[in-house]
């Protein structure tokens, strides 16, 4: 692909297109001179050029003056030379790109739909006749091709890998940022050189790591990333740590509300203090290239123009395609001497490995100021000859310690002379005096205090050197000064704020931006940004231990340094540990303050006090996730605090990032997160094949042709060619969905966002899971304990009810496939005793020795001895009633009563049976032959019949009352009243209950179906509705008006274990304190159901059972018992006033 339309005159173009066609004179005109050319001359050159070249047309227009006036001309000429419908052109650049033999500049059009590759001749004979009908320009899929017979196992980008803007964007998307440790210093949002080369190999789809390293160094030279100490270029090593430039990490958004990232915080930054080279919290940056630096604050377009010009762009010629339309079909180079395949063959014959290794030290490195002498060069020859080789190395290490100390002092002097003093003494750079001094304090902190300390340290070093050419010991000097290294801790904690203030001032203050640009371009600055010099104090303290270790390695055993240096190193390690911890806390606090100051809600009704300024508040993870799987879709900034998850969009106004919360923040306890694995529960995106390419060997053709669809796992898929390989057709970019669900009634439901990779998505699941586990452990009052042996009941078997008997040691369980019996132990295996379908309720009448079973709306009674039988037995039974929705067993009026409702459309008839004690019946009816009567012989006596003129949902018996739940509330019947008159539970004349009574009176308003009342030991009653709970007295009046529980979920059942109320939602169990109403604990799960009656708390051995999907195996159900932790069993609740 040729971009000679963008070539400056001082560059000798060697591309195959120029060699074959001879560039018109216009293209040898410098860019500055082009602006003065008439458009007529330019158009003539364009027409002449387009006769030979079709590929660089739009790129050429990007360098022309008056781009808007040429837009119609561009389309007309393009249609003339290419009859098919043209794709949309890329946006024009603000500046002409630069080009050299290894790197050329090209406008970044990554935000626009990709046209078919211009290096393909549209008039060529097609191998795949149907490719045209499949082609449709899409923003979600970028065309890629594969001509490899043996596809390289990796991931290729969906765009031209020769374009540096595309490669930079892909690298930014794929690199995993994490906390890395180097020289004892923890660097946030960092990556290592080996990882970068690995990603570049996949991006360019080549196994040539040398080529990938060259591409990476080109991007590094354009300040896409830098070594953390600003010393080295990209090195293929896991020990070298790099960071993206601050411009990449700063949100660069137009004021349309597009999302961005926090300054100095990667999209996946972790604020947890961790160490090691392993990824502790990682994430991927994911802006499309055109949105990198489209930073347009309302006050100025300075940042937008500067950022757009500085973003990596150009063409890497080794990865370009040949201009010949037929060259792509063959593995061999075409007729052109400058065919990229031919160039690749020549370059493979000339290895550059050694050159790359030797040149790994950056020419702009701060370490490039080392003096040309070594210790051996500054001492007399007789001194050098008088020492051993080991001592020689030791003296060189000491000499390096002193020289680097001197270089460090010169670095601080440079900062003072070139930055601090000019800013302080000038009224033009920052006119406001107070703001100027505040800026100096914020950015440069206590730099001069560190300078004074190191001047003294250097003086001590030089004084020791002046005593003798051979320095006997140096450890005592270090030991004297390391106790005074506390200023480094203060300096390190100010760095994140310093970089933020610096970048903000550069953005909003044009005078300062001009001053900074001129200063950084000064020869003394060695083209390094100010941040490179500001990082030197922190990297210097980390370097001491490396230098001291080199000295110690060659120190003899009898030297004092053998004791002094290890002591100094330990103190330095302690300082580094404190500095890392302080820096982490400062960064976390800084980000919290910045978010809190510019936080607002899209919908005012979603506003929640996040308490971001609380002392213990912490940002756990922050990442940018896309709304859809398309790479150009809306991006959300997702922030995980230690107590909430917030989904926001970042809007830049006046160079300040504003976080606009899009949905109600999700409390940590109510977050449910799920991910879809490839091929499981998700359909792949359709493939739109554009063209078919024949197979070929990537190595023989060169890495520039080894392009193919992505083979990574995700929602995207890969089309297969006729050989069954994954190359040849264009696939969509893979995407990795992650679903956040706000559990409960108040939540906004689920939202599915998309991450860039599996590695970027996994930390979300891990971080939330770990946070919830830690929170559950800290706030646990009740714990679900397995009550039945796991992995026994499949999820297809619906479990409906469970009751205990025999002093709580055994249970009877009702399931859709029958009745089970077992012991209330985790190891107990349930045993089926009755094979009856659709069993919904069971009850044990211990005094009557009966088992009541409600199956398929029919109520049966069995002898309790069936629990000892098996399904092979055919036990006798009595059928009590049919068309029974439920029944209730209770103790009322000193009798064991069984309430059986029969519901019709307009009325419900409640028949109350009294069970007789089997022992008494046995004594009275035992015959002379000694036959023992069966419990079924003892028929239940009908006690009374009651009529309710409405539907009945629940029945409960107390000592003398029957409470009946109806669609219009709870009504009470005094069982001692012969008139059988019902009265409402609530006093409808109480004005504080209007929020309930008005709804119960109005038949057009929806009703609360689940109403439960609990009696506390203080003789008060707490009434639970679907949405809230409150206190009433015995007359139905509301008490404690300041108390109102608003349930987070939609409870389907309740349980009471003093002093806690448990509300069972299908997704979680909400545990509330009856004294404060606060949510004490949340137990999450899937398909949660309470198996116990709400009145079980009144039994002698109250045990609450439930069932949910087994967290370890979703094919099974887990039956659990809620047990109180030992530490909370004896806690005394507060008294109600």
Describe the structure in brief:
The chain is of the alpha+beta class and 1137 residues long. Helix 8 (193-204) packs across helix 9 (209-221), helix 16 (389-425) packs antiparallel against helix 18 (447-467) and helix 20 packs parallel to helix 25 (561-597).
Describe this entry's structure for a reader:
The protein is elongated, with a radius of gyration of 39 Å. With 1137 residues, it is of the alpha+beta class. The longest helix is centred in the middle third of the chain and has 37 residues, at 389-425. Helix 16 (389-425) runs antiparallel to helix 24 (536-553) and helix 17 (433-444) packs across helix 21 (495-508). The strands form ten sheets. Strands 5, 6, 7, 8, 9 and 10 form a six-stranded mixed sheet that branches. Strands 14, 15, 41, 42 and 43 form a five-stranded antiparallel sheet that branches.
Task: Jot down its keywords.
43 strands, alpha+beta, five-stranded antiparallel sheet, 29% helix, elongated, single chain, 1137 residues
Shape: elongated
Please state the average pLDDT score: 75
How many strand elements?
A: 43
Helix content: 25-40%
Topology:
Layout: H1 16-21, H2 31-34, H3 39-50, H4 57-61, H5 71-81, H6 131-134, H7 164-174, E1 178-182, E2 185-192, H8 193-204, H9 209-221, E3 225-227, E4 241-244, H10 246-249, H11 302-310, H12 340-349, H13 353-358, H14 375-378, H15 381-386, H16 389-425, H17 433-444, H18 447-467, H19 475-481, H20 486-493, H21 495-508, H22 510-521, H23 530-534, H24 536-553, H25 561-597, E5 599-601, E6 619-626, E7 635-641, E8 644-653, E9 656-661, E10 666-667, E11 671-675, H26 698-701, E12 736-742, E13 749-755, H27 758-779, E14 782-786, E15 793-794, E16 799-805, E17 810-815, E18 818-823, E19 831-834, E20 839-845, E21 850-855, E22 858-863, E23 877-882, E24 888-892, E25 895-903, E26 908-914, H28 918-925, E27 941-948, E28 954-957, E29 961-966, E30 969-974, E31 982-984, H29 994-1001, E32 1012-1015, E33 1021-1024, E34 1028-1032, E35 1038-1039, E36 1045-1046, E37 1053-1057, E38 1060-1065, E39 1068-1073, E40 1079-1084, E41 1089-1090, E42 1105-1109, E43 1116-1124, H30 1126-1129
Parallel strand pairs: 5-9
Antiparallel strand pairs: 1-2, 2-4, 3-4, 6-7, 7-8, 8-9, 8-10, 11-12, 12-13, 14-43, 15-43, 16-17, 17-18, 18-19, 20-21, 21-22, 22-23, 24-25, 25-26, 26-27, 28-29, 29-30, 30-31, 32-33, 33-34, 34-35, 34-36, 37-38, 38-39, 39-40, 41-42, 42-43
Helix pairs in contact: 7-8, 8-9, 16-18, 16-24, 17-21, 19-25, 20-25, 21-22, 24-25
């Amino acid at each position: 692909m040729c971009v000679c339309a963008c070539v400056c005159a001082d560059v000798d173009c060697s591309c195959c297109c120029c060699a074959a066609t001879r560039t018109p004179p216009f293209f040898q005109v410098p860019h500055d001179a082009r602006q003065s050319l008439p458009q007529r001359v330019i158009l003539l050159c364009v027409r002449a050029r387009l006769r030979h070249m079709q590929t660089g047309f739009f790129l050429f227009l990007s360098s022309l003056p008056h781009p808007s006036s040429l837009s119609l001309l561009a389309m007309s000429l393009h249609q003339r030379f290419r009859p098919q419908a043209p794709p949309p052109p890329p946006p024009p650049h603000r500046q002409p790109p630069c080009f050299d033999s290894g790197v050329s500049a090209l406008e970044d059009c990554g935000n626009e739909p990709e046209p078919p590759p211009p290096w393909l001749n549209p008039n060529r004979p097609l191998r795949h006749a149907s490719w045209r009908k499949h082609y449709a320009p899409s923003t979600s899929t970028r065309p890629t091709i594969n001509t490899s017979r043996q596809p390289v196992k990796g991931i290729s980008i969906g765009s031209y890998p020769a374009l540096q803007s595309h490669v930079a964007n892909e690298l930014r998307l794929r690199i995993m940022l994490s906390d890395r440790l180097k020289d004892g210093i923890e660097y946030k949002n960092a990556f290592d050189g080996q990882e970068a080369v690995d990603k570049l190999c996949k991006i360019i789809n080549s196994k040539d790591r040398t080529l990938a390293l060259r591409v990476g160094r080109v991007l590094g030279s354009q300040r896409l990333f830098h070594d953390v100490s600003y010393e080295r270029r990209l090195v293929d090593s896991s020990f070298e740590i790099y960071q993206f430039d601050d411009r990449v990490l700063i949100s660069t958004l137009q004021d349309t509300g597009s999302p961005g990232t926090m300054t100095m915080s990667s999209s996946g930054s972790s604020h947890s203090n961790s160490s090691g080279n392993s990824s502790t919290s990682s994430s991927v940056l994911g802006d499309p290239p055109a949105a990198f630096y489209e930073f347009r604050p309302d006050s100025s377009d300075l940042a937008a123009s500067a950022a757009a010009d500085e973003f990596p762009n150009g063409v890497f010629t080794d990865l370009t395609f040949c201009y010949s339309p037929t060259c792509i079909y063959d593995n061999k180079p075409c007729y052109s001497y400058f065919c990229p395949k031919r160039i690749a063959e020549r370059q493979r014959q000339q290895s550059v490995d050694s050159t790359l290794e030797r040149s790994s030290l950056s020419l702009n490195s701060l370490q490039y100021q080392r003096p040309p002498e070594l210790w051996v060069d500054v001492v007399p020859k007789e001194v050098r000859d008088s020492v051993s080789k080991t001592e020689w190395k030791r003296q060189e290490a000491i000499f390096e310690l002193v020289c680097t100390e001197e270089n460090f002092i010169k670095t601080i002097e440079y900062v003072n002379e070139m930055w601090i003093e000019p800013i302080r003494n000038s009224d033009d750079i920052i006119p406001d005096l107070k703001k100027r001094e505040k800026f100096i304090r914020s950015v440069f902190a206590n730099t001069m205090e560190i300078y004074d300390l190191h001047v003294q340290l250097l003086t001590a070093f030089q004084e020791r050197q002046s005593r003798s050419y051979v320095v006997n010991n140096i450890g005592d000097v270090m030991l004297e000064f390391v106790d005074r290294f506390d200023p480094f801790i203060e300096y390190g904690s100010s760095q994140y704020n310093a970089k933020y203030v610096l970048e903000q001032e550069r953005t909003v203050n044009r005078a300062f931006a001009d001053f900074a640009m001129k200063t950084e371009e000064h020869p003394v600055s060695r083209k390094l940004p100010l941040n490179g010099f500001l990082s030197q104090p922190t990297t210097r303290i980390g370097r001491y231990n490396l230098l001291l270790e080199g000295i110690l390695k060659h120190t003899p055993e009898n030297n004092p340094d053998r004791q002094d240096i290890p002591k100094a190193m330990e103190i330095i390690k302690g300082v580094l540990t404190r500095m890392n911890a302080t820096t982490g806390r400062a960064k976390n606090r800084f980000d919290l303050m910045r978010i809190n100051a510019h936080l607002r809600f899209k919908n005012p009704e979603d506003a929640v006090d996040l308490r971001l300024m609380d002392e213990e508040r912490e940002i756990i993870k922050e990442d940018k996730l896309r709304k859809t799987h398309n790479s150009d879709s809306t991006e959300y900034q997702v922030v995980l605090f230690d107590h909430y998850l917030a989904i926001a969009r970042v809007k830049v106004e006046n160079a300040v990032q504003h976080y606009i919360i899009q949905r109600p923040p999700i409390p940590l306890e109510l977050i449910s997160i799920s991910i879809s694995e490839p091929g499981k529960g998700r359909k792949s995106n359709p493939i739109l094949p554009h063209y078919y390419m024949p197979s070929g060997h990537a190595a023989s053709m060169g890495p520039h042709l080894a392009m193919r669809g992505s083979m990574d796992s995700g929602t995207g898929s890969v089309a297969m060619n006729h050989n069954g390989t994954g190359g040849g057709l264009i696939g969509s970019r893979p995407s990795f969905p992650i679903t956040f669900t706000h559990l409960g009634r108040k939540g906004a439901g689920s939202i599915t966002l998309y991450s860039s990779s599996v590695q970027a998505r996994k930390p979300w699941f891990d971080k939330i899971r770990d946070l919830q586990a830690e929170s559950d452990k800290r706030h646990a009052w009740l714990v679900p304990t397995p009550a039945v042996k796991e992995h026994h009941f499949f999820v297809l078997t619906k479990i409906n009810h469970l009751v205990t008997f025999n002093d709580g040691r055994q249970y009877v369980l009702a399931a859709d496939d029958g009745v089970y019996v077992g012991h209330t132990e985790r190891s107990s295996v349930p045993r089926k005793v009755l094979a009856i379908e659709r069993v919904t309720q069971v009850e044990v009448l211990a005094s009557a020795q009966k088992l009541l079973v409600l199956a398929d709306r029919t109520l049966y009674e069995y002898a309790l001895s069936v629990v000892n039988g098996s399904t092979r037995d055919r036990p006798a039974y009595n059928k009590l009633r049919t068309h029974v929705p439920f029944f209730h067993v209770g103790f009322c009026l000193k009798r064991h009563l069984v309430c059986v409702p029969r519901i019709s459309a307009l009325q419900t008839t409640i028949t109350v049976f009294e069970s007789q004690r089997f022992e008494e019946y046995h004594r009275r009816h035992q015959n002379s032959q000694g036959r023992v009567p069966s419990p079924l012989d003892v028929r239940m006596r009908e006690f009374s019949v009651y009529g309710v003129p409405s539907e009945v949902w629940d029945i409960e018996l107390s000592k003398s009352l029957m409470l009946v739940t109806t669609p219009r509330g709870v009504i009470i019947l005094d069982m001692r009243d012969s008139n059988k008159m019902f009265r409402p539970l609530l006093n409808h004349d109480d004005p504080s209950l209007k929020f309930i009574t008005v709804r119960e009176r109005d038949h057009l308003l929806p009703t609360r179906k689940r109403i439960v009342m609990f009696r506390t030991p203080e003789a008060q009653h707490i009434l639970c509705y679907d949405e809230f709970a409150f206190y009433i007295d015995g007359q139905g009046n509301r008490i404690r008006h300041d108390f109102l529980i608003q349930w987070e979920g939609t409870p389907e059942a309740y349980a009471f274990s003093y002093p806690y109320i448990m509300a069972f939602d299908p997704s979680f169990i909400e545990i509330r304190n009856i004294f404060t109403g606060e949510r004490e604990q949340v137990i999450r799960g899937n398909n949660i159901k309470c198996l116990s009656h709400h009145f079980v708390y009144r039994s002698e051995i109250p045990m609450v059972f439930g069932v949910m999907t087994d967290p370890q195996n979703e094919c099974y159900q887990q039956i659990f018992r809620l047990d109180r932790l030992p530490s909370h069993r004896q806690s005394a609740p507060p008294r109600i006033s």
